[in-house]
Amino acid sequence: MVTLFVVKTTKGGRMPVLQAAVDTTSTQYRDNVEVQQAAVAALDAQLEKVVAGGGERYAKRHHDRGRLLARERIELLLDRDAPFLELSALAAWGTEFTVGAAIVTGVGVVEGVECMIIAHDPTVRGGAMNPYTLKKNLRALEIARTNRLPVLYLVESGGADLPTQSELFVFAGKIFHDLTELSSMGIPTIALVFGNATAGGAYVPGMCDYSVLVDNQAKVFLGGPPLVKMATGEDADGEQLGGADMHSRVSGVADYFAVDEVDCIRIGRDIVTHLNWRKQGPGPSLPADEPIYDAEELLGIASGDQRVPFDPREVIARVVDGSRFSEYKPRYGTSLVTGWASIHGFPVGILSNARGVLFSEEAKKASEFIQLANQTDTPLIFLQNTTGYMVGTQYEQGGIIKDGSKMINSVTNSKVPHITINMGGSFGAGNYGMSGRAYDPRFMFTWANARLAVMGAQQLAGVMSIVGKAAAESAGREFDAEADAERTAAIERQIEDESHPFFVSARIYDDGVIDPRDTRAVLAIALSAAHSDHVAGQRGYGVFRM
Ligand code: COA
After folding, report:
1. Segment 425-440, tens digit of pLDDT
2. Which of 162, 203, 219, 228 to mutate to test the pocket of ligand 1 (most atoms within 8 A of CB)?
3. What CATH number matches the domain at 295-456+500-531, 3.90.226.10, 3.30.450.20, 3.40.718.10, 3.40.50.720?
4. What is the per-residue burial (b if ≥16 Cβ within 10 Å, else e) of 210-231?
5. What is the pLDDT of residues 511-523, one digit of tens each?
6. Most informative mutation of 125, 155, 156, 176 for ligand 1 (most atoms within 8 A of CB)
7. How many angstroms separate the first and last alpha carbons of the chain?
8. What InterPro entries has UniProt attached to this entry (predicted)?
9. Is 67-274's fold the same as 295-456+500-531's?
10. What residue owns the CA closest to ligand 1's atom 18?
């Protein structure tokens, strides 16, 4: 007789469970929900525009030509019902260019492999690349490189946006540079060419490991017929210059000839199957049960006023597995909450601002915690809500600069994946210490109601006013209080606009604005993508200023 042993894992199950204390009947909670709902509605309205791309007229024209839209191509390419974490959706928001910047990027699953998808949107100015398209495209390639994600490039673009060529021409070369660099690192790159890939664009299939060209649609050439006529006088034919038939039989630029778009997508999926791809990081190792508190309540925690603090444990309790959180140094440096948890089974360390300001104790606690995570190869999640490091004579004399430097040293030299979420405010050097964009988090997202700037609008305008007054005094000029009030109000409005998440995301200072309720799902996809590469911490550090 065979004896069956039932092995019951208690790993991670012994962690303490957070007790949420938020009063969902309070006025404060209801006010918060109202503000967050309005912010999420504004986000949804923008995302609708993003999905519309170049609008109905151009979408219809595209369909009438028998072609699929960028998002339809992506949908067919991805595994059925697989999630797609779209990145930089609000690129170019508020600028002269269409929101979304004529390109769709994101992490999706193809044949069970997490890939970086980059798709031109030919309904927006022929899919031409403007300065925001370029930034978004380069960020997607950077995410592919740092997380070791194969790239699927869905090509159909009119090349450089000619009127703004001066702002993008030089750095557009980085796309081809990055594609071949990825290849040299063993990260596969696959070009699926559905349409125009002229001039510089022709180097996309050229630089990729694999290229698939669609018959009668793909046009891959350094110079089209008019340019060739001008340059050499030759009367060239488009198909002969750069069609799929020619490139697959004659030049060898195409590895595969696709009879139509669906065939091209099928071949693309088939190539992924043959990559023999294996993730190098460990898989989830802890129980992946849902939090015991409702994610819906995440709308009622952060206030609309960035100056009102909130307890980040209320957020953590609604994001991590089973709401389990083992807090580190809970009695020390209490305006930063640190501790261990897991998300969809991936162990993580979490650093989260509690009351906004970072004092010396918080900075030292963060430095220790980051080093501990690196010792155990544990990814770090930074939940930002900070007004920066404490100022004032007492704190300067206490060495706040030295301690802030320790924290920035730890964050900089940390080698485990960082994923950063701005939940409320990301101001001053707190943005740096809490792994802001300049500190290379693998992914960084912003809640729809958060703000990011060097300091709050009111504070910044106030500082400018004080500086102006002092300058007038030292120059012996009379201080014009009325003009100062006008200027102060104008600066405040300007900074308010510039710290808005749409403004921030438009410039790719983050990877997207999210609904707070999606935090767990977004973190899970980002974490899983990060485990495509080895997850290994840094054991040595830069010299700490003690
Ligand atoms: N820069 C700026 N705008 C461009 C553009 C570019 N490279 N390519 C196309 N557009 C604009 C067009 O002016 C047009 O604007 P409109 O609708 O306001 O009139 C819109 O995008 C759509 O272009 P259209 O030519 O009608 O679309 P199409 O689908 O028939 O053709 C292309 C698309 C890309 C094949 C065609 O526009 C083209 O050949 N563009 C120039 C390509 C080129 O030589 N690029 C230089 C590379 S460095």
Report:
1. 999 899 999 999 999 9
2. 162
3. 3.90.226.10
4. bbbbbbebbbbbebbbeebeee
5. 999 999 999 999 9
6. 125
7. 65
8. AcCoA_carboxyl_beta, ClpP/crotonase-like_dom_sf, COA_CT_C, COA_CT_N, MCCB/AccD1-like
9. yes
10. 125
Structure tokens, 172: 């557009």
Separation of alpha carbons 438 and 509, rounded Å: 9
Return the structure tokens found at 55: 């609008």
User: How many whole angstroms separate alpha carbon 394 and alpha carbon 387?
Assistant: 18
How is residue 539 written in tokens? Answer: 């054991």
Q: Give the residue from 440, 442, 501, 438 showing the smallest Cα distance to 302.
A: 501
Q: What is the pTM of this model?
A: 0.94
CA of 173 from ligand 1 middle (Å) equals 20
Provide the b/e sequence for 291-302 (b: ≥16 CB within 10 Å): bebebebbbbbb
Cα distances (Å, whole numbers) of residue 527 to 99, 184, 479: 27, 24, 55
CATH homologous superfamily of 67-274: 2-enoyl-CoA Hydratase; Chain A, domain 1 (3.90.226.10)
Three-state DSSP state, 301: coil
Report whether residue 161 contacts ligand 1, using a CB cutoff of 6 Å. yes
- Residue 465's Cβ-side half-sphere holds a number of Cα atoms within 13 Å equal to 19
The ranges assigned to domains in the chain are 67-274, 295-456+500-531
The reported pLDDT for the residue numbered 459 is 85
Q: Yes or no: say if 410 and 366 are a contact pair by the CB < 8 Å rule.
A: yes
Report pLDDT digits (tens) over 274-327.
999 999 999 999 999 999 999 999 999 998 888 889 999 999 999 999 999 999
In this predicted structure, which of 55-69, 165-179, 475-489 has the lowest mean pLDDT? Answer: 475-489
CA distance 212 to 356: 51
Nearest CA to ligand 1 atom 47: 159
pLDDT at 4 over 50: no
Are 157 and 194 a contacting pair, CB within 8 Å? no
Confidence of residue 390 (pLDDT cuts 50, 70, 90): very high
